[in-house]
Design goal:
The protein is an all-alpha fold. It has helices at residues 7-35, 41-45, 65-84, 91-109, 117-137, 142-161, 188-206, 212-226, 229-246, 250-270, 274-278, 285-297, 305-308, 323-341, 346-349, 363-387, 391-403, 413-428, and strands at residues 52-54, 63-64, 167-169, 172-174. The chain has a domain at 37-255 and 365-431.
């Protein structure tokens, strides 16, 4: 048997270096091609954290790096439309601009205490719609993008849950986080809703998603680690909807689901975990009694200082009352009591977007209170238009609606950005499936 020569290790090293250089060059070339299309830049924003470069008083959102990217993209889009004299607009952006107009009208009526920046957020979300359209037009692989979003955020959630890394909030990096929230968002409730929509897009987009239980369990575990109970509920409902659609025997499915659900609930209650410990007093009768007492004691406050000023602190919660419910009850009681005391005309256009501060922790109540009946109908029309695009869009809208019961998800930047990005992909989606060779696109399919 011939003995290895001295030059063999050198040849192996050279081969390794050349292979690595080829790998780097190939993906660097793809990266350059990707970055050469500014309309695709918002795709990158779905992965990176949101950090304020300039903060506003009493607001969680300030001037961010994202704003400069989105401003550049919308400027280029406007210039392209003007140069090409192409003023045709898709139904979703058309309804979206109508919603912006309605919300801004509410701001003008309530100029003294509302914030027009909350109404203009929807324009930022619409940029992701056009980015999603162009993403599919360039034959990029949307399911692969969704997988990467899940994987990247799940890695950070696991690392945060064991204390190995911190997280990025609006103010910057924090080495210690109470509850994990991944890398794309700033707080657990937003990450839970974000994962709900991403999971819905992946599972209901592909129809025959391979390894469904793997992705379902991975996403569900990450949502569980965030501790977002509304997102956990939404994930369970999405799973049931998918299994019901795939089931051949609907009656047998119902019986099996009831049995499995009973076992899961029993295990959830018996086995100690962060969510069950937070939910120990969730269904306590004292919650309702406390809400009634809060409603009776809270004065009518047309400036909503108790809501925007952080009233209903966790340490003030009585014994045996769910802390989360107490904080929401305090805010909700003041909003409902003040709205009832106002003239009936306030229900037409509401109190004005931004009146209730950064977080009311109840998306539907916030929507009807701040934008009135007109604004709520306009928003529902927009959601209906998005839901009509495809099954994945309708399920994503359903997930958003569930999260809006307890979270202001309609104001959550990454949640709404992904929803509009998904809507854009469905507008441009073709029957020809893109390549899944490990990158976002097959260069041979990319238009010149």
């Amino acid at each position: 048997m011939p003995q290895p020569t001295r030059c063999e290790p050198a040849q192996i090293a050279i081969f390794t270096i050349v292979s690595f250089a080829e790998f780097v060059y190939r993906y660097a070339k793809k990266g350059v091609v990707f970055l050469s299309h500014p309309v695709l830049w918002p795709t990158i924003l779905l992965f990176i954290p949101k950090i304020n470069l300039l903060s506003f008083r009493n607001e969680t959102a300030g001037i961010r790096f994202d704003d400069f990217i989105l401003l550049a993209v919308i400027s280029l889009l406007l210039c392209g439309w003007i140069v090409n004299l192409d003023f045709n607009i898709d139904p979703v952006p058309a309804v979206g601009f109508t919603v912006v107009a309605v919300f801004c009208t509410s701001n003008l009526i309530n100029a003294g205490h509302s914030n027009i920046l909350y109404s203009l957020r929807l324009i930022e979300y619409l940029v992701f719609f056009w980015s999603g359209k162009y993403f599919i037009r360039c034959r990029y692989d949307f399911p692969l993008l969704v997988k990467r979003l899940i994987e990247v955020n799940c890695v950070f959630i696991f690392l945060q849950s064991v204390g190995l890394v911190g997280g990025f909030t609006a103010e910057g990096y924090e080495s210690v986080v109470g509850r994990p929230f991944g890398i794309s968002t700033n707080y657990p409730g937003e990450m839970g809703a974000f994962l709900n929509l991403v999971f819905a897009a992946f599972v209901f987009e592909t129809k025959t998603a391979s390894r469904f239980w793997y992705w379902c369990a991975l996403t569900g575990l990450c949502i569980f680690l965030t501790g977002s109970r509304s997102a956990i509920l939404a994930h369970c409902l999405l799973t049931l909807v998918y299994l019901y659609e795939q089931s051949k025997s609907k009656s047998g499915f119902v019986l099996r689901t009831a049995a499995i659900s009973g076992l899961l609930v029993a295990a959830f209650v018996v086995i100690p975990n962060p969510v069950s410990s937070r939910s120990a007093d969730l269904f306590s009768r004292q919650n309702l009694e406390t809400f009634k007492d809060l409603y009776d004691d809270i004065p009518v406050d047309r400036q909503f200082t108790g809501v925007s000023g952080g009233g209903g602190a966790p340490e003030d919660a009585p014994e045996g009352v769910d802390v989360s419910w107490y904080m929401r009850g305090f805010k909700w009681a003041q909003v409902v009591k003040t709205m009832v005391a106002e003239s009936w005309t306030v229900w037409i256009f509401g109190l004005g977007p931004g009146t209730l501060g950064p977080a009311l922790d109840g998306g539907w109540l916030r929507l009807i209170s701040e934008t009135g009946v007109v604004g709520t109908v306009a928003f529902l029309s927009l959601m209906r238009k998005i839901a009509s695009l495809s099954t994945s869009c309708s399920i994503a809208v359903f997930a958003l609606a569930v999260n809006m019961l307890m979270v202001d998800s309609q104001n959550a930047y990454k949640v709404m950005a992904f929803l509009f990005f998904l809507a854009g992909t469905q507008i441009e989606h073709t029957l020809e499936q893109p390549s899944a060779s490990g990158s976002f696109a097959d260069p041979k399919l990319r238009p010149a």
